[in-house]
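2024-03-11 09:14:02 DEBUG pipeline.ingest accepted 1 chain
2024-03-11 09:14:02 DEBUG pipeline.ingest length=899
2024-03-11 09:14:03 DEBUG pipeline.predict start
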Amino acid sequence: MPLKTSSDEQQLQRSPYDPSVSVHFFCRMKSMRKKQTVILLVSLCMSMGQSDFAPYFYDNGAGSSNGNMALFSIAEDTSIGTHVYTLNGSDPEGDLVAYGMTFDKSSKEYFSVEPKSGNVTLIQTLDREVQDEIVAFVIITDGRNKVVENVRVFITDANDEKPEFLNLPLIVDVPEDAASGGSIYRVQAIDRDLGSGGSVTYYLQSTPSTKFTIDGHSGVLRIRPGESLDYELSRTHFVSVVAKDGGGKYHGKYQVMTSTAIITINVLDTQDYPPVFVGTPYFGFVYEVSVPGSEIFTVFATDGDQNNPNAINYSILSGSDGFFSINSTSGCIILTSFPVQLRNELYELKVKAAEVGPDRFSDYSVTTVTVRVVDLNNHPPTFYGENGPQNRFELTMYEHPPEGEILRGLKITVNDSDQGANAKFRLLLVGPSRVLRVVPQTVLNEAQVTIIVENSTAIDYEKYQFLTFKLLAVEIDTPERFSATADIVINLLDTNDNIPKFSSEFYIARIPENSPGGSNVVSVTATDPDSGLWGEVKYSIYGSGADLFLIHSTSGIIYTQPWASLDAEVKSKYNFYVKAEDTEGKYSLTEVFVTVLDQNDHPPEFNQNFLEKTMIIGAPVKIEAVDEDAEEPNNLIEYSIMEADPDNIFDINTSTGEIKLKPYIKSMEIVQNITKQKDCRWSVVVQARDRGSPSFSTTAVVKIDIMEANRLKGPMADFLMQSRDNPMKALGLAISIITVMVLVTVMISTIIYFRNTKSNRITPARCIIRRRPKEPRRWTFRPRFGRSDQSFGKFFADDDTSEIHSSPRAKPPPPSAPVLPPLPPVHSRPSEWLRSVPTVSGSLASRNTSSSCRTSKSTDGLQRSGQNKDSSGINSALVSELKMRIEQKINEANQGYYY
């Protein structure tokens, strides 16, 4: 029953707040009979609302995580999205405040602020080395007044910069006579971090043969004590120098960062080596037909200092006996008399090579040239076998012998009966390039010929069944150039050195769904170039996707299992591996991808053939049909209206199935004029048709109730509309309601407190735990592998013995696709063979001194509450263990079923 109110209270009733709160407020006023107090509070609130002060930030000082961000600092390695600060302030009138933050137009926006809570979040990556402080403007507002403060956020350093080398690339030129331990270069690197993270030390990535060392602090590179440089041994040295910072924290972890550079040290040559003769030892020959002035031999020497060599001057020191001379510039030794005048068959000439430098002759070297007097060349080279002279040698061997192996089946000797230079000849092996090589290549008089394998891969039975070479012996220094030739034939034997190779790395196949069992899918081909049984290939398939497929072991044709039924809606992609294997087990693999092509074999289906919908004028209603086909366009649905009563009233969206009224129907009056009925319930026959070929369709009858949207009515709605332009009335009413509720809460709490103080103790809750005796029960779990004779595991729960027996699940055998398996048994769903497991539960109650309910432990409670003799021997630990093992075996059975 409403109260009689004054004009001021009638104005308060027009508050824009919840009507139920207003009714509750006025009922409280009636029950407490304090109308005057309420009027006084309303007046007080109205007077307070007249003043309006600006909000302000709390200044919590440096190091605080909330306030106005004064003297706030943030580490540069702070992650994006981190809550870094909370803006905190207040309004003198207690109004709600909102927070914000802005930046200069030329600056990035590094932070975002949640207006209500003031939480500041980092939204940009920080880099102290690029920008070490951020200027921002923090804002607080109560909706009418706004306060803006300028703050500077300092970015603290993290160890995120590597040392950087200066003056790259690092190249040093050092003379080879530089002193041991001397400084040759100074490496410099800088680190832009601060503190220990910006300090740099150096060290070398040393190798066992390094000749250099570096000072860790200054970066001065020196020649290691006791070491020296030698231009003739090594002209260039490469040294890896590492610059390491002092370490520091980055993202909360301590890290040390390093950089590496290569120092190229070029050694400069100095004159410190004498001349060097090239091609020693030297041998020359004088023939019977030679004449004075004939060239016997030419020596050649070079300056050991190769960077800036001096000219060489040649001279004969001794041993010529006046029969030989030498060209001082070219080093050519010349015969000065006729051969008949020579008294010895062998002469050893001491030849001197001296450098011609600024000081005339400086360093020099001496070598020996042996000159032999020989007869005429009248014997050609000849090849010999085990039975005498022979010009054809044959050998049988397996393909791919090891490289470096000697062909021991060939026993060849070559001989030239002449003497001296006439018996010097060269051996050549003519045939496929770089397959075999002959040793020795130069022969004097006689040698045993050795043929060595140089390229094992070229000796391939699949390319050549035999190899033919020509062995040549050609004299070197004789005018006649006598020679000899021998044929070498190598017959090859095959080995199983190849693996089967598929014609493609993978195969892609497509097969329509619902294809009958035994349908061909794809044919794979692998070849093995080996001969005989080694070249025969057998195929097999492996993998979890191969269960529905078989492969012909010799032809490679893959087809479906006779019982297989392919359904694109269940699974449309299969992949498995095909193995091609020869008789010795060498194999290769390829992968087969099978796509099950969708066929339009499902019509669209509505949830019900008879649907009821309620339509509000101006808003559509939606119907939906589902097509279980897997691919487009078979599962694309088009909707249409087949029949409507009354006709030509509804439109339907062909894609979404939304039904709406014609545009001209905008009110219930038009609807009632059309139907002449009060219930406004119309029928529509809707058809859903897919886009497949052939196309399927389904119809449904939709009963549609037409109604108009309700509008908010009543005195409270009128009050809300009238007071929306005067928010102070609503504010005053809200404050009054809150004040009264606080007073009532305090009063009720006081009454409850005094009532509770009359009692000096609190009685504990009393509870008796009882357990209804049950008969012993046995649980047996069997796996779902399709074979009833294989027991997965048994579990027995016997209250007398409390024994648990289990057998571990055997690992499933590897898939064997080529063997045709029996038809799979029809299994029920997993939910049908999983049995519920009884569990034991209990609760603890407070222990009373009167011993009416004594439950100290769950085991003691079970013993006291249970009356069955068989149940007295089971304790809570055994029951928990039994429950745990049963649940574990159920999970293992589920995993085995879906393996």
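2024-03-11 09:14:41 DEBUG pipeline.report The two ends are 72 Å apart (CA to CA).
2024-03-11 09:14:41 DEBUG pipeline.predict end
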